[in-house]
Amino acid sequence: MPFAVVLILLVVGSVAFHVYSQNYEWWFTDLASNWGMVDFTVDITLYVTGFVFVAVNLFMAYCVIRFRYKKGARASYEPENKKLESWLTGLTAVGVAAMLTPGLFVWADFVDVPDDAHVVEAVGQQWHWTFRLPGDDGKLGEVDAERISSENPFGMDPEDPNGQDDVLIYDGEIHIPIDRPVKFVLRSKDVLHDFAVAQFRVKMDLVPGMNTFLWLTPTKTGRFEILCEELCGIAHYTMRGAVIVAERDDYDTWLANQSTYHDLNTAPAGNPAIGAAQYAVCAACHGQQGEGIAALNAPKIAGQSAWYLKRQLMNYKRGLRGTHEGDVYGAQMIGMAATLADEQAVDNVVAHILTFPDNAVASTIEGDIARGQKYYNVCAYCHGADGMGIQAMNAPRAAGMSDWYMARQLQNFKDEVRGGHLQDYQGKQMGFMADNLHDDQAVRDVVAYINTL
Amino acid sequence: MTIALGFLALILATLLGWLLKQSFNTQPWVAEVVGETAHHGPLGTNSRLIALLTLLAVVSSFFALILSAYALRMELGDWVPLTEPQLLWINTVMLILASIVFQWTRNAAVKERQARLAPGLLLTGLLTTAFVIGQLVAWQQLQSSGQFITSNPANAFFYFLTGAHAVHIIGGMYVWARATAKVVLGTGDAPSIARSIELCTIYWHFLLLVWLVLFGLLLST
Amino acid sequence: MAYVAIADRDHEIEHHDPQTFITKYIWSQDHKVIAVQYGLTAIFVGLIALGLSALMRLQLGFPDQFSYINPENYYQFITMHGMIMVIYLLTALFLGGFGNYLIPLMCGSRDMVFPYLNMLSYWVYLLSVIILVTSFFVPGGSTGAGWTLYPPQAIMAGTPGVDWGIVLMLLSLAVFIVAFTMGGLNYVTTVLQARCRGMTLMRMPLSVWGIFIATVLGLLAFPALLVSAIMMLLDKALHTSFFMPAISLMGADPGYTGGSPILFQHLFWFFGHPEVYIVALPAFGIVSDLLSTHARKNIFGYRMMVWAIVAIGGLSFIVWAHHMYVSGMNPYFGFFFATTTLIIAVPTAIKVYNWVLTLWEGNIHLRVPMLFAIGFIFTFIHGGLTGLFLGNVTIDLPLSDTYFVVAHFHMVMGVSPILVVFGAIYHWWPKITGRMYNETLGRWHFWMTFIGTYSIYLPMHYLGFQGVPRRYFAMGNTEFMPESAQDLNAWITVSALFVAATQVLFFINMIWSLSKGPKSDPNPWHATTLEWQTPDHPPKHGNWGHELPVVHRWAYDYSVPGYDDDYIPQNVSADDAPAGRDHGGAH
User: Fold this and answer.
1) What subunits touch chain C, counting only 3 or more CB pairs under 8 A?
2) pLDDT by residue (tens digit) across A220-244?
3) Are C195 and B39 in contact (CB < 8 Å)?
4) Shortest Cα–Cα distance, A51 to chain C (Å)
């Protein structure tokens, strides 16, 4: 008897859980695309299966009560009942067909991309998203995995005229206009990834060596997070991006500010001579040779990679870094970065920094090197076993840089003082990783190990 | 995957047909006297034969799946057909001869002509060894002409298929060696040796068939 | 053909006479000892995998609280947990364990047809387990590629264990497949050839049917895993490009060209889907026998049950790509595979109906094995129904790669088969050991396991609806996830740890029973099947003493009208049955 009661309670409880789950938002996010039919198909399946779940289990509970063992009772004898079995089979087939049919129709829509869909290429790599738009000619240029390099992360064919006006977006964030069908062409540079936006309902794997696609029409403006949903290595869970659905005008404004492949190729290189003048401001804290002055809380910058210095300066300028109230020293840098008028000025000063000699710095932090090495195993995936950084992974050099600064930044990442800005995708990623250093001692240990590299 | 599916359909259809025959018109709940419900296995009483046939089904599934992969991989852009070494023709003849001699030996064993067993088995072994060595030589010929396993997917499949086939041959030669040793040393009783030879012969024919399919496929692509 | 019962011809089966402890319990060729060896080894690695799941649940429920869990070993935990549970625990336990124990006893034969091969099968299986466990200790640790081992990621830097772990994993799988094939040949041949007189196919207990068809599936499907494992090893070791396309990894070119990762997925799931049924079918069979015995009623619709098992087995080979709807394969395949997948729901539903209808007008003894059997029906209904979501290609779009998938397959492949495993162990424990377990402890074990697991997996589906992705080490501040999602995760972790802890009850009970448990009756459940009719209790080597049993009836003669007892063993002839008039009693 208690068994049957528990069965009934579980059935009732499951239904109650389902009903209340909606109150706790343990349910689909609000739909933001045209795929309402997906939700509809889910609903049909939910009602059919829900009915079967309740009916069969309650029947079973009834049997357990009604036909529980009684001394002297005897079970009936009925090897089979063809009529009953045929009926049940038939009814099940009808139920299954009712669930399947709408699904097939929706899928037919999904595999058939509307002709007026505009194309966005989403490119996945360990562990970042980048994007490419076909530009004015509406055609994406040829790409080839073998041409991918630090200078040409998309693997563009420089000779292909179709590629010249392709818009390249390195931000991890893509804008699309509302109410217009968009076809995402999906490409992976390295391993499997998956392009998934919960509010859009559709997802698809990225497969290296081929292009895949999905399409949708966004129906709500706003920011929608992209998650990679195919295991792609240890930082899989940090591979985030965003789709920004905007009104048409906002979209056009955004698009006008993006650079094409041609723009990027023809941008003048940084001029160290001009940069030298700009650097005078920096020198006050970072030292004449970029050696860093700990007393002024200014880290060594000599020997750091150009792309990283540029990104951080741009982040300060764009308000992606240093804006958190806890980031006192970062706030100082915002003012300093503001003295660099534009991207060209940043390029110049970075070019000047590159001319500095890379002298060793004194270690200031001690810790358990053996333990630090264990922690560093995870860091090494991006920053390299030698700690020299890997540009393709967006991971800067750590070895031979100011250790006190790294310790502080790790703490900042943990506290989201740094990397908390929505658009700072690399910073967010580092935040995830810094969370693996559970206390100050762990931070000291890993920095102590990096000092030995 | 059509190749693998076709093969499976064949196996499952056989199995299903047989099961249905056993089950369709029976009313299992009716108790019967023993004589009428006497059972016998699908192929008589030879359990080793059943086990061997089951094993052959497993091996066929293995090769059918490689062939499916072959067909799928072939459609991708970088496939460059391989020119098979002419030596493979000679190897094929060796394997056919091995099968024929084995069959002859088997017939002798069934007819209890003991004197023919030792020469027959040894000749089979010789021919089969020649086949395996011939395959190795073919590999070397390919290597020396710069056709390495990594050069091209067609090459990779060639090495994989021939290698997998040779491993199965060598596995069979273990059983062959045990039977031969018994014959040559005069240990073991005649019926059990005859049974071993019978099963070995089936296995040899099967691997010949697999090889002919593989070779035909390699030649035609 | 003249009738010869194969098992009568004892010379066909090579019997060794066990003399010493070593030949009796270590190098034993007795199927019962081998079954126990298989079972203990499988349970041992299963406990490792259970420990791993506890570790990963700790991280998910309480992120960043445990310094010994980092993304690297987290992905190793999930990979090893999945692989061990699916292959080394469930497959080995159902086929190597229960298959070995039950087939000869239920079919009325003295042993497997090839006892030596059977022994070899266990030792090769043990070798595969040792290789697998070794991979925890090699430099870089075991592989963290996820149990599906998808390339390119499985053999590329960026994944833990890429140097040694993955190689040992593939090697271990290959060895396991060899072991399984040795066992499988035995199971198939024994069922076909060594049944005792009168044991027609349609008189076999459903346990044997389930195990038999599962073995056939395994024999045909495991080669797909072998092929993909070998090809991946070649890609890894010799740099071929079967599965590896041209890629740029971490800014470097690893030198592959033109391969297809999707090809691997096709091969993997060609094995992987039948694998689900390799585990499920024996569970279906065993649970049918438990229900029938403890409800004192024949299994309802026996023939339909047999055909359903066979149909599910056959269909399981043409549904594999439903694991790949969003893999980037040709999307038009989606129509075909969604249809075949939902068709398979029909025979599966029939099985469920027939189980429930077996209870109807029964005389249900709610003993421990029966609790587990009915618990299984409940969880299997739940898991089967959620399969209708994922099998439907459209619904798979939002739900694939989320916790819904995790919840679904744990419900059908984790909880349900494990409930059957426990039910079966409790059911056959008296036969295996000759002793009874403690009924109260068994009940507690059931209640905590049953309610605990449901409390893990019911909420988990809702995380999936919400969009929480699987295989995430931490969610961080994901914008669309409410705070309450984390609360649910914490709840799931608490439940999981609770369930893991309560398994102690099972081990206490069994260990206690081994030495102190009361001696059991030879047929404590009054069951009809042959294993309860052995002359010795527990059965000795050779099972049947001097004379093999002769079967006169099917395995489900419970409560036959016109007889005093409410069961008639299979080997009781119509003439010998008590009050034996109107024999058969069928209408």
Assistant:
1) A, B
2) 999 999 999 999 999 999 999 999 9
3) yes
4) 10
DSSP element (H, E) containing C227: helix C206-237
Q: Is residue C527 part of a domain?
A: yes
What's the pTM value of the predicted model, to 2 decimals?
0.94
Mean pLDDT of chain A: 93
> Looking at chain B from residue 153 to 172, which residues have their Cβ under 8 Å from any Cβ of chain C?
153, 156, 160, 164
Place of tokens 């149990």: C147
Check whether C278 has a pLDDT greater than 80. yes
Count of domains forming chain B: 1
Contact criterion met (CB below 8 Å) for A450 and A372: yes
With beta carbons under 8 A apart, name residues in chain C contacting A14. 382, 458
Show which subunits contact B, needing at least 3 CB pairs below 8 angstroms. Answer: A, C
Residue B135 falls within a domain, yes or no?
Answer: yes
Q: Which residue of C has its CA nearest to A203?
A: C397
Domains of chain A: 2-68+82-111 (no CATH), 118-266 (2.60.40.420), 272-451 (1.10.760.10)
Inspect the interface and report whether the beta carbons of C297 and A75 lie closer than 8 Å.
yes
Instruction: Determine whether the interchain pair C6/B47 forms a contact, defined as Cβ–Cβ distance below 8 Å.
Output: yes
Is the per-residue pLDDT at C14 higher than 90? Answer: no
- C18 touches A at CB < 8 Å: no
- Give percent above pLDDT 70 in chain A: 100
Polymer length of chain C: 587
| Model confidence at C582: pLDDT above 70 | no
Residue of C nearest to A48 (CA): C385
CB < 8 Å from C in window 65-84 of B = 65-66, 69, 72-73, 76-79
**pLDDT at residue C21, as a whole number:** 75
Any domain includes B71: no
pLDDT recorded at residue C200: 87
pLDDT digit string, tens, across residues C92-107: 999 999 999 999 999 9
Supply the pLDDT for residue C19. Answer: 67
- For chain C, say whether B29 makes contact (Cβ under 8 Å): yes
Edge-first strand order for the sheet with A240-246 is A173-177, A240-246, A222-228, A193-196, A203-206
Contact partners for chain A, using 3 or more CB pairs closer than 8 A, are B, C
Q: Residue C578: inside a domain, yes or no?
A: no
Q: Is residue B59 situated within a structural domain?
A: no
Give C541-569 pLDDT, tens digit per residue.
889 888 889 999 999 999 999 888 899 99
pLDDT tens, A387-409?
A: 999 999 999 999 999 999 999 99
Q: Which DSSP category does C366 fall into?
A: -
Owning domain of residue B149: 78-220
Q: Across the interface, which of C363, C585, C586 has its CB nearest the CB of A73?
A: C363
What 3-state DSSP class applies to C394?
helix
Mean of the per-residue pLDDT values of chain C: 91
How close, in Å, is residue C522 to chain B by CA atoms?
A: 24
Taking contacts as CB-CB distances below 8 angstroms, the residues of chain B near C203 are 28, 37
Is the pLDDT at A139 greater than 60, yes or no?
yes
Tell me which residue range forms the domain holding C507: 29-242+260-533
B106 within 8 A of B197, measured Cβ to Cβ: yes
Determine which of A271-275, B30-34, B128-132, C44-48 has the lowest per-residue pLDDT on average. B30-34
Which residues in chain B are contacts of C197 at CB distance < 8 A? 34, 38-39
